Amino acid sequence: MVTLSNEHESDTRQRLIEAAAGMFVEQGFNAAKVRDIVAHAGANIAAVNYHFGSKEGLYAAVIQYHSAQAIEVLSQQAGDDGGRTPAARLHDYVRTFLKRLLTQTPQFTMSKLVAREMVEPTAAFGLIIEKFVWPQYHALQAIVRTIAGEKLSEELVRRCCLSIVGQCLYYQFARQVVACLDPEFGYGPADVERLAEHVVAFSLGGIRQSVRTHAGEAQKSHSGHVNDR
Asked: Structural domains in the chain?
């Protein structure tokens, strides 16, 4: 049975995570002050040590909480439920990824934290890779392998996955450049949906071409071995 005291402690912990997430995103880990976080959360400064042990522990909790939220949404949208084609799963993956990068969804916080870590890496960078980056990569890797029909090497699967992610990330990190090169592009829901369709079409073409190229190289290699005999 959860007591009122336990409920209060859980509420305080969650309020600290939410307040800290906003400040870590806006100011970065080093600049964010614990006293400001607890004031915003309506807690006392001892609550950080009680619940998290330190500012670093609070930051780790923020990463784990928002990573779990983002991965859960991705799993719901792009998971293998047995009823969609691999191309449809890729579309759901890319659309979910772009929405998190480019629009104010609840998962936008994690994307901003990752962007911060790219500029100002902290000791928690490894935690972000473990809890946030790897689960997404493995999900995309499974989709690409299914599309390719197990006909690509591990290296080529990685290249395909990173190419897909790279297309999406460019629109996050180069907004000002995009505005100059493509002034008609916006960042509204309809724009993101059209962008997702383009990235998926481009990526499917790339994956399929990689399969054809890989098959052609394998055939040439086999023919060469035959002729050598």
From this structure: 1-53 (1.10.10.60), 68-228 (1.10.357.10)
